[in-house]
Amino acid sequence: MKIILDAMGGDNAPDANIKGAVNAINKIKAEVVLVGKEEIIRSKIKEFYGKGMEEISERLKIYNSTEIIEMEDQPTVAIKQKKDSSMVVGFNLLKQNKGDVFISAGNSGALLAGATLLVGRIKGIDRPALAGILPAYKKQLILMDCGSNTNCKPINLLQFAQMSTIYIRNTFGIDKPAIGLLNIGTEETKGNELVKESYRLLKENAEELDINFIGNVEGRDAFSGKIDAIIADGFTGNVFLKTTEGLGKLVKKSLKESLLKNIISKIASVPALPAINRFSKTMDYKRYGGALFLGVKKPIVKAHGSSDEKLFEYTILQAEKFVENKAVDKMIQAFDKNRN
Amino acid sequence: MKIILDAMGGDNAPDANIKGAVNAINKIKAEVVLVGKEEIIRSKIKEFYGKGMEEISERLKIYNSTEIIEMEDQPTVAIKQKKDSSMVVGFNLLKQNKGDVFISAGNSGALLAGATLLVGRIKGIDRPALAGILPAYKKQLILMDCGSNTNCKPINLLQFAQMSTIYIRNTFGIDKPAIGLLNIGTEETKGNELVKESYRLLKENAEELDINFIGNVEGRDAFSGKIDAIIADGFTGNVFLKTTEGLGKLVKKSLKESLLKNIISKIASVPALPAINRFSKTMDYKRYGGALFLGVKKPIVKAHGSSDEKLFEYTILQAEKFVENKAVDKMIQAFDKNRN
Predict the structure, then answer these.
(1) B98: Cβ–Cβ under 8 A, 6 or more apart, which residues?
(2) pLDDT (tens digit, 9 = 90+) per residue, B121-167?
């Protein structure tokens, strides 16, 4: 297996990308191909580790590319014009089967545009979408769409439910993942027009499409551990995701400040630190890795733009698992079957 | 001042309502009028405190009503037909100036319908809406609309911004409260049609309407303490609110379980408990009380349906402050001025 990593994308590129790859390489069996400016990558490795790349691992590779898609670049234009950018080169390697999965923390719009333009949609799927992984009680919660489709139709939400089901079944080994529709009440009559119509469509088609649709889910029950995936249009899903992130930040900051408020609480908190760290780890959505862009013909992982070396490491481990489980192939088969 | 409390509304009524009123009475100057079945209320007080109501405080009163609007009642029908319900009687006392604020934890739909039908909208306001209070970094965050208007137009969001401004200025003493529009990115071009058009309207009218509009706000920055109010349609606002509640529950549960995981962490966490409790208190959105229904001619507070005695106590304290600051009168004046 070959994992293609955009070495030049993200707020902390290329340092965090390179360090993340080095951290991950001995925890995986796959090769990691760093796509970017070869000279820079080689000199950074020398600087960080005092030795050459080949001495670190023979499974660590470089594929040279000379351009970079910047955060402020207009997505579609950048994908079309920057032909030798790390992102476009990465996509082309993936398309030509010179790699099995592509990871990038770069310009999100360009990543989604490139995925559709260069790799292509799976037949039968109208809108690919981002499936994010969030923490929930003693397990993870998949959220789809995390924000790639601001305006959705009910058919899109139905397909998100199908894709989530196939992904979760083949990655987490849950045979009948519980899929909920994000809404503001559990009753059928609740919500705006989009969710009401989506509810109807999901209910009607759940059995035939092998979706374990459990109905409407409110945000307050989303993290209970009883739901495997939450389906929403990209606007609502993104509000949900970022609210979770925002409150997570507040929790960390407030807990830290409460513990360090004065010298007494500082000393008193020392014995409790292992437990508190265990708690912080549970709450850290980042440790699950990036978001998967489902609905395109090859595995593509959108790493967080602010990824540090630890997060790149997690995302690489996650990507290997994602490829191993062949969720994308199974998605292609399932949607092909539905069409016949 | 007289605070009218629906003694029969809410999941824990009438016990929690009565206990909350008794807890609050010596912390406020106002009278509290318990509206509900007099016989039941009197016997409960006797049971809980071993003495009569008059012996507890002469500012604690009862106003008898014989019916109850149940959670499953159809809102508008219930308001029209159950004329002697605690909720309708409470509204009528408020309307007839026999009280200054009405608090209820009962059927939300009926409360909102009754507020509009029996008390009436302020002239110039198209849609009254619920303003909720959430925890943020070292301060509170107002969220409007929390869920009373599932389908909104841009003009509604503009009015929510005006109402929030007047409310915050007159309750928290912040002269120019920072008002943000809930969106999935900070750029002007982000979001669905409603938020894009609302952004334009807010920007155009902010100066004239004395709104300190700071632009789009993402959920991840909402709790930073830099924003005083977040404006959203009721669907998106309710998703935001309930996500906050859901994650809050997960945080509490996970922290508790981490601390109690084994005997070592149990013992180790004891000295840190004051700090951890301080943290839990910061995160508890309930301690801010209920949500205010702004845009109607009199102060109305929607207490949480699951209110316990502590929460009723908080909500009564909050209601007294709300009346003292005359935010509703100032809202009536401001919208009257805008119309001329």
Answers:
(1) B2, B4
(2) 999 999 999 999 988 887 889 999 999 999 899 999 999 999 999 99
- Measured N-to-C along each axis, helices B38-49 and B15-25 cross at an angle, to the nearest 10 degrees, of 60
Report the chain A residue with the minimal C-alpha distance to residue B193: A151
- Give tens-digit pLDDT for A210-244: 999 999 999 888 888 899 999 999 999 999 999 88
Confidence of residue A253 (pLDDT cuts 50, 70, 90): confident
- Angstrom CA distances, A106 to A5, A305, B175, stand at 11, 6, 41
Residues of B in contact with A261 (CB under 8 A): 275, 278
SS3 state of residue A41: helix
Question: Which whole number is the average pLDDT over A250-271?
Answer: 72
Write phi, then psi, for B218 (nearest 5 degrees).
-95, 150
Q: Which residues contact B218 (CB under 8 A, 6 or more apart)?
A: A242, A246, B183, B184, B185, B186
Report d(CA A125, CA A122) in Å as an integer.
6
| Cβ A286 vs Cβ A318: under 8 Å | no
Strand order through the sheet with A291-294: A60-64, A31-36, A2-6, A101-104, A300-302, A291-294, A129-136, A139-144, A229-231, A178-182, A212-217
Rounded Cα distance between B69 and A101, Å, is 58
Closest approach of B50 to chain A, Cα-based (Å): 39
pLDDT of residue B175: 94
The rounded mean pLDDT for chain A is 91
What's this model's pTM, rounded to 2 decimal places? 0.86
Cβ neighbours of A146 (radius 10 Å): 25
DSSP string, A203-239: HHHTTTTT-EEEEEE-GGGTTSSS-SEEE--HHHHHH
Distance from CA of B267 to the nearest CA of A (A): 8
Largest Cα separation within chain B, whole Å, is 69
Comparing CA positions, the residue from A102, A149, A146, A167 lying closest to residue A285 is A146
The pLDDT value recorded for residue A29 is 97
What is each CA distance from A141 to A144, A161, A228, B7, B211, in whole angstroms? 10, 13, 5, 39, 38
Test A246 with B222 for CB contact under 8 angstroms.
yes
> What span, in angstroms and rounded, lies between the C-alpha atoms of A272 and A133?
28
Q: Tokens 């994010």 — which residue? A: A132
In whole angstroms, what is the distance from residue B91 CA to residue B89 CA?
5
DSSP state of B188: T
What is the C-alpha separation between A158 and A147, in angstroms, rounded? 16
| CB nearest A275 (choices: B191, B236, B261) | B261
Residues of chain B with C-beta less than 8 angstroms from the C-beta of A263? none
β partners of residue B178: B212
- What are the residues whose beta carbons fall under 8 Å from the beta carbon of B222, sequence distance 6 or more? A243, A246, B136, B141, B180, B182, B230, B240
pLDDT of residue B173: 87
Is residue A249 scored above 90 in pLDDT? no
Average pLDDT of the segment spanning A153-174:
95
- Among the ranges given (A4-13, A282-291, B205-214), the one the predictor scored with the smallest mean pLDDT: A282-291
Contact A31, A63 (CB under 8 A): no
Residue/partner pairs of A206-210 with CB below 8 Å, 24 or more apart: A206/A161, A209/A158, A209/A161, A209/A162, A209/A165, A209/A338, A210/A165
Strands B291-294 and B300-302: antiparallel
Q: Does A241 lie at the interface with B, CB-CB under 8 angstroms? A: yes
- Say which DSSP state B153 is in: -
Q: Is the pLDDT of residue A114 over 90?
A: yes
- Please state the length of chain B: 340
User: Is the CB of residue B249 less than 8 Å away from at least one CB of chain A?
Assistant: yes
